[in-house]
Design a protein that fits this description.
By secondary structure, the chain is an alpha+beta fold. The protein has a three-stranded antiparallel beta sheet with strand order 3-4-5.
Length: 110
């Protein structure tokens, strides 16, 4: 996929830029837990799955499988875009309750 982007701020004297997006090697993974750490230059975000079992109610296993490393500029852009997406979701479906004990179970259609 290629896309020609207009010059920034309407400046006609700069040449346009062609952006090529390659996603043939992309994989999809599910995550329901993350942790973060960082340095003064980079942010590390680890993604994984909470494997809590009903037969062991007092044991929580967090299995991390993927790490993304990004600059804080990229992290801020990601935070802005995630905020927009979550706000749009909540406008349509209502607020998301982060405390699982406070969540209402929504009926499923059969």
């Amino acid at each position: 996929m290629s896309e020609n982007l207009p010059p920034p701020n309407g400046e006609a004297s700069q040449p346009s830029v062609t952006v090529q997006v390659r996603d043939q090697k992309m994989t999809t993974e599910y995550t329901n837990v993350f942790r973060m750490a960082g340095t003064h230059e980079e942010l590390f975000v680890d993604f994984g799955i909470n494997l809590q079992h009903h037969d062991q109610p007092n044991t929580v296993v967090l299995e991390f499988s993927h790490r993304m490393v990004m600059s804080f500029y990229t992290a801020k852009k990601l935070a802005v875009e995630l905020s927009k997406v979550v706000n749009r979701y909540e406008q349509v479906y209502g607020p998301l309750q982060l405390d699982p004990r406070q969540r209402q179970i929504r009926p499923t259609s059969s």
